[in-house]
């Protein structure tokens, strides 16, 4: 079957455009201005807009050909491969309007109906392996437009390409929904943390003689009704101030020659981003990177100490055996269960990450010592308030973890099913059966 499909170079199937050389001196801070899609904004499988640069609309006149459209496939041409995978993604409607920056390729099929098939094709292990083999340069590994277009593949018939497109769309839609749900759940937890432990809303309400909004009388009664001065300014009366050291242990466990396991499941800084671990790599211990030493347990918070502004942090939930973090992480293990979510939210609050990024030193390799993370100042509420917060936040964190797991399962299904379907190794009825089992049959 597959052998009957024509073998063609990618150039016969797509149009490729490299981005425009937008000058950094022209970057804009206007939130209504156009986003610029750089290689840094491409993660394996999706576009990310943290650290986005913008360009004023009035200065974009004449650059319309670099405007991205939903369905476009984008590929980083500098450092196209990272440990988490190939930096290729499909532009969604929410990613537009945006413009393509130099050293990023926009790849568009002749027929818009083939956009999702093209994304699936460029997400296959075959294309990833090809890109790794043709990448040149050591300081900044890179690929050229010609190298991308030289990739050869067997072109399935239109009905197969259409089905692949349907599968990609269905899986990506479900994965995106799970990620968006998690963003909402985390925002809810962060908002509650800020209300209780930064703005002290329940205390202000009680000081005015009012019932704190959204709290039962029993929980409201746990909060003081007045303030007192402290080294952090006014804090609820009876609460103390300190640091995360008061609530968590720093780097409590490490693998040594005496306790080392036969193998580890390794998490590097590059694979952790804003509470999402993109990839966990299995190593025999003797083959693992020398930085694979931090033992990670359920309820731990990990915060990247190298370039902390990159927001390489995550909450560890239901870890696999021998989960191990890089020594580039500060590992915070709560001293009591009630402090679990508080520690994570305090350590990863925007103010904390911004502070760590500000004090990081080292020039091209800015970093902070792990102790700087554990010394982050915080208020120390009563145990009863801390436990009440845990009772509310823990279910949110559990749902986030469940969604992470489901999204990973769907991504694994996508990454194993589609290459076999594209290559002709898997028949459409068999693919539909597997999709039906996952609740995704069209």
From TrEMBL:
Which keywords has UniProt assigned to this entry? DNA-binding, Restriction system
Which superkingdom does the taxonomy of this entry point to?
A: Bacteria
User: Domain named Type I restriction modification DNA specificity: which ranges?
Assistant: 54-186
Pfam families registered for this protein in UniProt: Methylase_S
Q: Which InterPro entries match?
A: Restrct_endonuc_typeI_TRD, Restrct_endonuc_typeI_TRD_sf, Type-I_RS_S_subunit
Provide any one GO MF term from the record: DNA binding
Per the record's keyword annotation, is Transport included, yes or no? no
Q: Biological process (GO) annotations?
A: DNA restriction-modification system
**What family classification does the UniProt entry report for this protein?**
Belongs to the type-I restriction system S methylase family.
**Name of protein:** Specificity protein S
Q: Which organism is it from?
A: Aeromonas caviae
């Amino acid at each position: 079957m597959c052998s009957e499909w024509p073998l063609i170079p990618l150039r016969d199937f797509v149009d490729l455009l490299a981005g425009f050389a937008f000058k950094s001196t022209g970057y804009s801070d206007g939130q209504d201005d156009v986003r610029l899609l750089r290689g840094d904004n491409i993660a394996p499988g999706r576009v990310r807009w943290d650290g986005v640069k913008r360009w004023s609309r009035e200065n974009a006149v004449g650059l319309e050909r670099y405007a991205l459209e939903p369905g476009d496939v984008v590929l980083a041409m500098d450092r196209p491969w990272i440990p988490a995978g190939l930096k290729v993604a499909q532009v969604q409607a929410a990613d537009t309007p945006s413009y393509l920056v130099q050293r990023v390729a926009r790849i568009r099929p002749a027929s818009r109906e083939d956009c999702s098939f093209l994304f699936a094709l460029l997400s296959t292990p075959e294309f990833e392996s090809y890109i790794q083999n043709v990448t040149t340069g050591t300081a900044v590994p890179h690929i050229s437009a010609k190298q991308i277009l030289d990739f050869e593949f067997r072109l399935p018939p239109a009905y197969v390409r259409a089905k692949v497109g349907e599968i990609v769309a269905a899986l990506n839609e479900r994965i995106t929904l799970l990620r968006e749900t998690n963003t909402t759940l985390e925002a809810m937890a962060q908002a509650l943390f800020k209300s209780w432990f930064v703005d002290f809303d329940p205390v202000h309400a009680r000081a005015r003689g009012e019932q704190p909004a959204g709290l039962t009388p029993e929980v409201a009664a746990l909060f003081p009704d007045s303030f007192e001065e402290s080294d952090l300014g006014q804090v609820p009366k009876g609460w103390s101030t300190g640091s995360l050291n008061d609530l968590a242990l720093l780097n409590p466990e490490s693998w040594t020659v005496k306790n080392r396991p036969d193998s580890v499941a390794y998490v590097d800084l590059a694979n952790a981003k804003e509470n999402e671990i993109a990839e966990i790599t299995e190593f025999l211990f003797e083959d693992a990177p020398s930085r694979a030493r931090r033992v990670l347990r359920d309820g731990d918070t990990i915060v990247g100490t190298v370039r902390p502004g990159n927001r390489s942090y995550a909450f560890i939930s239901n870890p696999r055996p021998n989960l191990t973090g890089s020594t580039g992480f500060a590992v915070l293990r709560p001293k009591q269960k009630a402090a679990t979510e508080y520690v994570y939210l305090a350590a990863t609050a925007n103010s904390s990450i911004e502070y760590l990024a500000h004090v990081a030193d080292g020039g091209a390799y800015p970093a902070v010592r792990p102790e700087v993370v554990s010394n982050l100042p915080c208020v120390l509420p009563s145990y009863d308030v801390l436990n009440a917060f845990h009772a509310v936040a823990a279910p949110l964190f559990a749902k986030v973890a469940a969604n992470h797991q489901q999204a990973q399962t769907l991504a694994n299904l996508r990454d194993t099913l589609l290459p076999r379907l594209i290559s002709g190794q898997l028949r459409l009825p068999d693919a539909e059966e597997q999709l039906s089992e996952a609740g995704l049959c069209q």
